[in-house]
Amino acid sequence: MAHVAKGTRRKWTAQEDQTLVNCMVELHTHGTHNGKKGGFEAGYLSELAKMMSQKLPHSHLEAKPHIESRIRTLKQVWQEYYDLLNGRTASLSGFGWDPISKMITASNEVWEAIAESKSKVGALRRKSLWYYEQFCAIYSVDRATGATGMECEDMVQESEFDPAFESQHMQDVNDSSVSGVANKKTSKRPATSDNDTPQSSLNSSTSNSRGKKK
Asked: Ranges of Low complexity compositional bias (predicted)?
């Protein structure tokens, strides 16, 4: 079971996050709650809560605020990757996606230019995001049309909600493993099973992540 800290703040486990993403992919595949412009329509949170309850009966996750706020956090980080890879980040180009390492790729020259500009995008060079492709399948149309369903204020608040998010989901990779290959195309890969723990989530210190296989 996840821990609750500082009032209503809830620390999600790697297993819960993996299960949530898999349930989202499953619900999107069924198509019963899909939005007309990507994403989901009203009522999907309750359905996700039911699915989560069946898979993790002791998690006690509610549609609001637990699942709703967690999706905001996951989506906020995904948007940073998506915008960079799809030319939505001003004055930045030359990026690709490695579906194996789950990392953004670019030439050394591109990364060096970013480092000189002191852009925060440079931090993504060593960060993998295990659920990027799953969220692309669900939200890419939504994001492309600009109908994100999230206000900037909401995203800032959610970023502050869980400061441990980066260590749990965005794996820091050392320089020797950073790919310098640019302009790889994004590859849609099927979601993993609930029994698979994403590599980046192995950094989580929660007890529920012990014993999980990569």
From this structure: 200-214
